[in-house]
Design brief:
It is built from three helices and no strands. By secondary structure, it is mainly α. Helix 1 packs antiparallel against helix 2 and helix 1 crosses helix 3. The termini are far apart.
Length: about 100
Amino acid sequence: MATFYIRNDGSLYLVFYFLYPSKVPTKVPKIYLSQHGDVSKLKYVAKWYPWGSIFAAVICAICIIGTVLDPASRLSVLLGEPAFVLLWVGYKIKYKTKFVRVSK
């Protein structure tokens, strides 16, 4: 039974793992613009910018909603996500790390 929940929780984190790279192609031009650069002069541009990132985020959101709605996976989500948030907040407090805004 425990391995079942670990497997489902791991699949949800895999979705989050693919969600982050979908955000990067939209984040890099924002950072470049904040440094007074011209986006058209970027050497590498994502192939379907920005629609590829939006499509990937929508697909990941559908997978997350599907995982939450699945009765077998619901317990792993309800226990795993708050545990992750608590560990992350504890890390932020312990090491006093701060968020770096795009404009800086």
